[in-house]
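Please annotate the following for my students:
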Amino acid sequence: MTESINEIIVPAHKSKERLDAFLAHSIERTSRSQIQKWIKEGLILVDGQPAKPKQSVLPNQTIQITRTKLPPIEAQPESIPLDIVFEDESLLIINKHAGMVVHPAYGNRTGTLVNALLGYSKDLSEYHDDLDRPGIVHRIDKDTSGLLVVAKDEEVHRDLALQFKDKSVHREYVAVVWGKIQKGQGTVDAPLARSIRDRRKISVSEIGKRAVTHYQVLQRFPIVTLLQLRLETGRTHQIRVHLAHKGHPVFGDQTYGGRTRQLGGLNRAQTAEVQDWLGLMPRQALHAKTLGFVHPKTGKTIHFDSELPVDMQILIERIQNYQNTINSEQEKVI
């Protein structure tokens, strides 16, 4: 293990706030309980003095946090099948299956996309010395399926990373969401930050980074809506959080209210039907369908498209059958 010291200057305009809350919001993937633990261990100094458990921060104070860092995980090659949509000497386009984590972490050391890529090829970018993430330019959530681009060398990686930063990469998703969205198309423009209450989640926050999601209704059903979504920015969990914020969480999304929270407004027959749908979709019904960018070597714009995965196809077919049944029953009444 190694030690690192983070230094944070409290903004001059900062209003009074408890130290643990301030730091939990300032440091990614850190909870208030973790901050309290560091305070008790004497790892946090405020203006050179050991911090106190219930201390509040004041403007312009200097906070130093000494943390032990675990050694980086060295990913190992594994023989895992990959769904390769395209490959040339510069890059790969992978159709990631739901359930696969993109890169190793302490909770997922094996079975990741990186493990699979290392088992497939030695020609992968090590841009920024991310030894645990060779070739990875961007990510997709574990339980989201769809297209990813992987760089084979540093020059290609840098170029692609810049395109993502400049928001020039074209990314479209398809999702089944709760509720009937009346407006045919629209935009969700709401900043996102890590949640103070649960550091594993993201939430809409005034102090977050700008996040923009465009949507278009593909088909409305009695209980859910099929959406096409286009990302203008690419924040963590962006689509899932934006849709939940608007009251239309992605169907099946355990983290952001897409499994059971919406059942309260349904009658008994609808509840039974939807519970069957949830049995067909143990994950969020979200797929990264389209990916387009300028090829770093040729300068030509290229686009890739993928079919919806089988689980989403089965879900949508079941929903369509339910709608047809309702329509038939209504026609009989008339």
Observations:
- The longest helix spans residues 310-333.
- The chain has a mean pLDDT of 89.
- The chain has seven helices and 17 strands.
- Residues 211 and 238 are 7 Å apart (CA to CA).
